[in-house]
């Protein structure tokens, strides 16, 4: 009985220690320089329906169910999706817009697991005729997910998708010339 209690005590202490040292937050972002004026790029960031045209997840599940609520491109507009195991189920809601410069969204996942993140896209002019788009998101790692993040990297899990999405955006803009 003493051995079982000792093992149980060590396991509890290990979990507590891991919870204390585990990362409590995450932030992932990627940027790309586009050969287009910010005025041309902005609609691709502001409107939820336009975002679907370059979303890496839309390509992972072309049969994903999409519904839109509210006025697209305005605060409170929501895009809800329900797809395969690669995209899950969730929604994004526009929460803040700085016209022509930044859009912020609340990103909520329902499946395969519940989570919430703050998503943003920044648009900056570069050399007068080019644009820099920075796409990122951040959030909190709640227990027990925080312990799992000691062994996993949100940057590695999502970073490549952000890179692919930004490349899709560049390709779409180049094909619209």
Automatic annotation (TrEMBL):
SUPFAM superfamilies: Bet v1-like (SSF55961). CDD domains: SRPBCC_1. Gene3D superfamilies: 3.30.530.20. InterPro entries: START-like_dom_sf. This is Polyketide cyclase / dehydrase and lipid transport.
């Amino acid at each position: 009985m003493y051995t079982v209690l000792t093992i149980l005590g060590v396991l509890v202490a290990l979990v507590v220690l891991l919870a204390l040292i585990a990362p409590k937050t995450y932030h992932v972002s990627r940027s790309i320089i586009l050969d287009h004026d910010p005025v041309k790029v902005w609609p691709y960031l502001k409107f939820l329906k336009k975002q679907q045209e370059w979303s890496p997840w839309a390509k992972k599940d072309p049969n994903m169910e999409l519904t839109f609520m509210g006025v697209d491109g305005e605060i409170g507009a929501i895009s809800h999706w329900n797809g395969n195991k690669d995209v899950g189920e969730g929604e994004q809601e526009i929460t803040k817009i700085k016209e022509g410069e930044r859009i912020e969204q609340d990103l909520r996942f329902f499946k395969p697991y519940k989570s919430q993140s703050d998503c943003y896209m920044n648009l900056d002019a570069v050399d007068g005729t080019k644009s820099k788009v920075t796409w990122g998101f951040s959030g909190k790692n709640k227990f027990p997910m925080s312990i799992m993040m000691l062994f996993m990297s949100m940057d590695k899990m999502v970073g490549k998708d952000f890179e692919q999405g930004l490349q899709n955006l560049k390709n779409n803009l180049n094909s619209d010339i």
